[in-house]
């Protein structure tokens, strides 16, 4: 399946289904209708054994993320988008498979690694209470286009 966000095209070659979750057109079937009170990831992609939540940040000016305050605001936005999407899908009864969260952020590798580590801690993904029966997400990955394409040959991104 092919999805597009701005100038980026995503090919999810082995997916069963893929759609824009932050759809703004109310006439389309994937419009969730809660933009006034909930945030949403850009895409939800279904695979046979898991769901993939995808958030895309392709800043035209990467220098806008030069300060700790800016990076922390970005991380908090990523957290809220994941949590709201998770809650929405849970309420729909559509979380019958593990969830993976991937963020495409066009920053350098050092910044994306830092963001990924902070994000894992804030969700939480790698550490959770022992009484939880299942994790919020099985994996969290943050990368730029180059790293994403190297790590995920079956989910290639191209600029169009």
Explain this structure.
It is a single chain. The protein has one domain. The chain is built from three helices and eight strands, in the order βββββαβαβαβ. It has 160 residues and is of the alpha/beta class. 26% of the residues are buried. A five-stranded mixed β-sheet has the order 3-4-5-6-7. It is globular and about 40 Å long. Helix 1 (68-91) packs across helix 2.
Keywords, separated by commas or semicolons:
160 residues; alpha/beta; five-stranded mixed sheet; three-stranded antiparallel sheet; 3 helices; 8 strands
Strand content range: 25-35%
Our Rg estimate from Cα atoms comes to 15 Å
Profile the largest sheet: 5 strands, mixed
Distance between the termini: 16 Å
SSE topology sketch:
Elements: E1 2-5, E2 8-12, E3 17-20, E4 43-46, E5 51-57, H1 68-91, E6 99-105, H2 109-122, E7 139-143, H3 145-151, E8 155-159
Helix pairs in contact: 1-2
Compact overview of the structure:
With 160 residues, this protein is of the alpha/beta class.
